[in-house]
Batch of 2 targets.
Target 1
Amino acid sequence: MTGRGTSGTGTPGLSTARVAASAPEPRSGIAPGLLADVRTRLGTGPAGPPDDAAVAAALRASGRVLGSDALVDLTRAARAELTGAGPLQPLLEGPGVTDVLVNGPDDVWVDRGDGLRRSDVRLPDADAVRALAVRMAAVAGARLDDASPVVDARLPDGTRLHAAVEPVAPAGAVIALRVLRQAVLDLPTLVAGGAVPPDWEALLTGLVRGRANLLVTGGTGTGKTTLLAALLGVVPPDERLLTVEEARELAPVHPHVVALAARRPNVEGVGEVTLTDLVRGALRMRPDRIVLGECRGAEVRELLLALNTGHDGGMATVHANAAEHVPARLEALAALAGMPRPAVAAQAAAALDVVLHLRRRAGARYLAQVAAVRLADTGELEVHPAATWDGPGSGGPRAEDGWQSMVRRWSAC
Ligand SMILES: Nc1ncnc2c1ncn2[C@@H]1O[C@H](COP(=O)(O)OP(=O)(O)O)[C@@H](O)[C@H]1O
Ligand SMILES: [Mg+2]
């Protein structure tokens, strides 16, 4: 032990998040003494998070709550402290919030979709940050302590939790929360917000409706998952979507989504369910479309196989810093599955129709290129640009060779 905090036992100071007087953010407004009392009454057993009724009963039993209005408010506040993200909960519930990051007690950041901004929320001290991280990990059913100092888990409401404590975070515990929200950025919103040129909207809709097999590419944080979710929102409602992801991120606005998420092996090294397993499994679950949230390993083989055997309308994202890197990237991933290069080229060219490549410049994320996937005369896999855009404020996109035929083929769909 390093002496920094105690794992899992007390939760010192969780309730005492200080919020600067000028802060616009709400605070939980529950007295630390009352919260401690409620915590004691609820017991410290390993049972799942207490529900509203249990919290309300504990509050009532404390004899310090008068009036049913106060009880409702306090129940909500107490539950946030006891089971949710404590002092971070109001930030997570704020409109448009995508990420909440805690680097230290006085170093809390929030992204409301327009970049990271420092928040006024403070935690009492470094021990409180660690205790909060440990408690959220426990709520997510995971362990976080000196022996297992990094956690990647999901809170009951779908929020993704990443946290690290000493010894891997020597300056003190750090927490990163990513909110799972229904895709707020639908295709028209992406167009209106300048992420997609208006000229391309009809083509994108046509590609989805026409069941093109699409690969969304770009660097980290360029908006691949966001665009993918928006495209899924265009899929006709009578189609059944099977999404496969490492950890659930996609929450498209669509009435028929079956989400599968991979599982890591447990500490004994058993119980792993890989993306490859899930793509295979998804194919047997009567999908109208297979969606692979992020393709980053050997599962590319199953994806290409599926798309080449009648499962059209499939979509996936792949990390690539430029559209012309996509062939090499696919070959590298497929090599992990033992596929030789010429086989990857042939399969990918047959399976994939269009690459949608995203870029990020000066904080703006935008669709920079629409490209066709094909097999060159040399037998190499080729991603051939059909239109290119330099982003918001740069004027319209430039059509390249092949744009007209792409539009003719897909726009009318
Ligand atoms: N067009 C956009 N406008 C505003 N925020 C966006 C846009 N696209 C993505 N984001 C935000 O940027 C972050 C990263 O996006 P994400 O789609 O997860 O990227 P990737 O999948 O490429 O890593 C998310 O918080 C997301 O909400
Ligand atoms: Mg992503």
Target 2
Amino acid sequence: MTIPRTETEKEYLIRAIDALDREMIVISPDHRILATNRYTIEKRGKNIVGDVCYDVFHERRSPCDDCPARRVLHDGKPVLKDSYRSLQESEQRVSCYPIYSEGVITALLMVDFDLPRLGKLEEELRRSNAFLKNMINSAVDGVIAADRRGKIFIFNQSAAEVSGYSIDEALDRLYIQNIYPDRGAWDIMKKLRSDEYGGRGKLKEYHVDVLGKQGERIPISLYASIIYEEGREVGSIGFFHDLRTRIRLKKELESAQIQLLQNEKMASLGKLAAGVAHQLNNPLGGIMLYSRLIQEEYALSEPAVADLNRILRDAERCRDIVKELLVFARQTRHEKQLLDVNKAISRTLFLLEKQVLFQNIIIETRLSMNIPMVLGDIQQLSHVFMNIILNAAQAMEGRGKLTISSMLSEDAQKVVITISDTGPGIPEDVLPHVFEPFYTTKEEGQGTGLGLSLAYGIVESHHGKILAGNNPDSGSVFVIELPINP
Ligand SMILES: Nc1ncnc2c1ncn2[C@@H]1O[C@H](COP(=O)(O)OP(=O)(O)OP(=O)(O)O)[C@@H](O)[C@H]1O
Ligand SMILES: [Mg+2]
């Protein structure tokens, strides 16, 4: 197509070409220079029209082997940014365009790209690419980008650490469909395309699981967006972080809060119990004193003596309970000394073993010889072990296995005593209450529900910890931790 142009227009076109600061020549199909622009003349120091390009530019006697003009003549299409080497110039980039006259290429336009400038651009591009790559790789968050089919093309170091896949593995063969389990990727894309989760094409703080290389599910918080190019969806990119630490900390905090509440509850129950115990102490003393006086001062009939004995026995029982309550509330004073925990355990077992209840119970002790002495009250600690062991024997109804171990904690700061039985274990609904005073599941007259609350109070006064739980197979387990340096 010939474009009609005025003389002025033609004049401007020539001036425009002369304004260009790069070499530009028009050659005939046999490489003769037909026209050039001002810049070429100035650079070459002479007008080169009529010469052949391979001579002017490459000081050759014949056209260059890889001359772009050849390809243009052959294909009929421009060859852009073609590069070729000649003997004199190590590298040159030329764009070559065909000039048609009535459907035939009668001339070719050759434009030399300004190499240094292009080199700088390339260098800048390369550097900013490297910078971006570095930035993505060193991001604290995991970064994963995928094309429209889900094929992953960006997978940074954090993503590798969270998922367990190496970067190469992921780039080589992973699709986002492999990363999110149970149609998770599909669900994410659906949400991304809707308006409801942070705007169209965006998804904010979405909690979802990632499937690790070993098949494990890793909870993450995801920020994702669709990548658009000229309005078309070409891929997606997601930034995420591992929620495992946060979830673990939350759980630990919750259990610490429960423990705190439990401590508070025990403390106030303790005060209440101590108050009641104090008030009961005097009238109990009175009952026992006057019962004895009656026994001694009056000549009573047999049945009356038996009744009085009964009154005395029950009153004594009440006094014992009151005593235990006061211990629980730490109202009684005890002397603490350095003691051998293993000895306290052995002493307790020695006392209990001979009782009928223990005749059909196998007792296994695994006492570590490497535990240091603990500052405490041996009477009180024996009482703790005794209450737990008695409960175990009662739970097993006199038949089963009792295992008692002592060892040094991993951090070497505590002595850990574990007492487990093969009984029915502690039901879920009972477990949170076992340390409460007067909590018992035993029949009336069988238990006061003070044994474990007493143990709790004693261990607390030793700045230790007592925990109750169940064995995975069967039976209950009690763990007592006593600090070495309270
Ligand atoms: N080894 C165990 N196996 C199963 N349940 C247990 C075990 N130890 C304690 N329990 C439960 O904890 C409850 C409270 O125990 P705790 O020793 O405080 O009171 P008790 O044994 O009922 O009464 P007491 O010890 O005052 O005679 C028990 O009634 C029982 O339900
Ligand atoms: Mg008990």
